Structure formats: structure tokens, C-alpha cells
Amino acid sequence: MIRSALNKDIYILAIESSCDDTSAAVLHNDRVLSNVVANQEIHRAYGGVVPELASRAHQQNIVPVVDQALQRANIDKNQLSAIAFTQGPGLMGSLLVGTSFAKSLSLGLDIPLIDVHHMHAHILAHFIRDSEQSIPEFPFIALTISGGHTQIVLVKGYFDMEILGETIDDAVGEAYDKSAKMLGLPYPGGPLVDRYAREGNPEAYSFPKPKVDPLNFSFSGLKTAILYFLEQQQAQDPDFLSHAMNDVCASIQKTIVDYLMEKLDNVVAQTGVNRIAIGGGVSANSGIRAALAQAQTDRGWKTYVPKFAYCTDNAAMIGIVGYLKFLEGKQASHAIAAKSRLSF
Ligand code: KG4
Ligand code: ZN
Q1: Which residues sit with Cβ closer than 5 angstroms to ligand 2, an ion?
Q2: Cα 281 to middle of ligand 1, angstroms
Q3: What is the Cα–Cα distance from 218 to 233, expressed in whole angstroms?
Q4: What is the pLDDT of residues 302-334, one digit of tens each?
């Protein structure tokens, strides 16, 4: 980091609108002054994110969310040094709302516009300075696990990252949510599976772990296995879930957590790097948190879990990347376009 620039007061307004959360944050250098997230409840009724409804909700939310972020940070828009926004990847209609808003505001205020890759942001969220959060040293391994992503990345520097593995089908959060749906739980069911799992026996049932390359993931087979398992059990006992819910959830959770830990074992063996930083909504999972804490003692790893607010989709993580890029003079032109697929 450029030390001289650290002495300056840099204020970044960041905007994130890649999926179904409209978020705006204000950072003063690498510290978060405000981080406002408007969740879109409308998708619950549909059991998943409906892209058209998401972009409409972003349209409604963006102005009040940005206003609130500025108010909570006690900052006037004229004090801002730059506007950072998520360029992609994500849902096109959603990204367009944040991108157009960020462009117009940067033009109106005549300040730099900074494009941010959503996946870089999940990783660089670890560099938000916060008393509760310790900052990893380079190089480290980032495991990003959410409803939209499952990636293992070797992070050699702020802007020097290499994807070592990723899912070939569903993301891990999707696997949680689809399993939950089959168990009759409302969307997003991941946190509920986690809650029931804590009361159950993880050894009660076993589900197969898909075989793919050592650093890649596959979750679609697990989904099918759970579907057949439930059909079989319910054919014999229609009330199966009313007494077996905790054990089924604990067994699903064990399968997923063991699978994630197996992949981390593989990447540590392959790279020799044992600093592991996780991010994404599934980092809230009690099973993965416990397994990582255990790995600090058993395997001597150093593990990093950001504050929950910086794990799920949020604009503070976009802001920290905006700040780091600002220090390096990396700006976007106003011709920049949102991209639903954006190379890493
Ligand atoms: O990062 P996020 O808020 O949004 C994106 O998908 O980008 O992650 C949401 C995902 C959902 O799939 C949700 O079910 C999952 O994270 N999730 C959990 C837990 N908390 C959130 N999955 C398992 N256990 C949890 N405690
Ligand atoms: Zn995300």
C-alpha cells in the first residue's frame, strides 16, 4: 500500500447491486463509516431470486440506500473522493442499476469512477480495517462460498490472484438452499439447515461426495442423492421428516463441510500455503466455522473469517477494493459497461 496516500483522507462511496441486495457504503480510507443493505424480501415467495423483480427493486432502493449510507457516515456527497461500483459478474438487470447510478453520480460530482469485480471484493473484504477482524498476509488461500459462488483462489497480492478451483455446477449455498427446499424449508434455507443440524446426529445418514478434480467442486449429485433418499424414506414413513429433520440436516451439513475441508486440504498440500480466508454468505455456517477453528489447532493453519456483514453481499467490500484501486490510480472510463460475466 502506498504509505503517503494513507495520510490523506479518502472517502469512497461504494455501490453493490449484482444480485438481490441493494447496498451502499461509505469508507474513510480502509475503515467503514456506513454499510447499508436493503434485502429484497420479494424473492422469498418464489423460492429463489427472480431477475426481473430484482432489477425493479434495485431501481426503487438505490436512491434511499445511497442517501442513508451518506447520512449514517455523516458525509456530504461533495466530500467524496470517488465512486466505486460492481461491474460484474452478476444479473445484468441488477448490475445495470448500480452501474448507471454510479456513472451518473461520478459525472455529476466530477470525481473518479472505479469499477470493481464482485469476486475480488469478496476476497479483499478481509482488508477492511476493523477491530474485530485480523488481516491475512500474502500469499493466502481464499475460499469464497455463497449462493452464487464457490471458488478457491490463490491470493498473491491485492490485484494478483489466481483461481485454482471452482464449482462445475451449483454453488455451495445453492446446494444448501435446494436441499432445504426438498426438506420443505423456506428460501433461503441454508441458515435453517445449519440451525437444525446443530441439534442432530451428523453420522445418522450418509450422502455421496462427488468426485471431480482435487480443487474443483460439484454439488448437483448431492442434490439428486438427497432427493432419492427422501423419496425412499417417505415411501416407508410419510412422517419421516417430522422426527428425522435434525439428523438429516446434520448429515447434509457434515457431507458439505467435510467436502469443503477436503478441498482445502488438497489446496494446502498443493501450494504449501496454509493461511485460509473464507468469505461469502455460507461463511456464516456453524459447521464450516467449527471445522476451520479445529484446523487451526489440528493442522496448524491460520484461518480468517470476516465479520458476517462483510461476508454476504455488501457494498463495504466494494468500497475497500475502490480504496485500494484509488491508491493505485486505477480508474474506469465512463464508457465502461456492466458485465454479467466478467473475467477474473
Ligand atoms: O453471499 P450471499 O449473501 O449471497 C450470494 O449468494 O452472493 O450468500 C447467500 C447464501 C444463501 O445460499 C444462504 O442459504 C447461504 O448463503 N447461507 C448459509 C448460511 N447463512 C447463509 N448456508 C449455510 N449455513 C448458513 N448458516
Ligand atoms: Zn457475492
Answers
A1: 146, 313
A2: 4
A3: 25
A4: 999 989 899 999 999 999 999 999 999 999 999
Q: What Cα–Cα distance (Å) separates residue 276 from each residue in 1, 166, 238, 317?
A: 21, 16, 43, 18
Question: Phi and psi of 31, rounded to 5°?
Answer: -110, 145
| Span from the CA of 170 to the centroid of ligand 1 (angstroms) | 13
Task: Name every protein residue with a CB atom under 6 angstroms from any ligand 1 atom.
Answer: 19, 146-148, 173, 176-177, 188, 190-191, 194, 280-282, 284-285, 312-313
| Contacting residues for 328 by C-beta, under 8 A, at least 6 apart | 2, 159
> Which position has the higher pLDDT, 100 or 7?
100
DSSP β-ladder status, 302-304 and 275-279: parallel
pLDDT (tens digit per residue) in 149-161? 999 999 999 999 9
Q: What is the largest CA-CA distance in the chain?
A: 70
Rg (CA), the chain: 21
- At residue 115, does pLDDT exceed 80? yes
Strands 21-28 vs 150-157: parallel, antiparallel or unpaired: unpaired
CA distance to 36, 111, 206, per residue, from 315 (Å): 8, 19, 39
pLDDT band for position 175 (cuts 50, 70, 90): very high
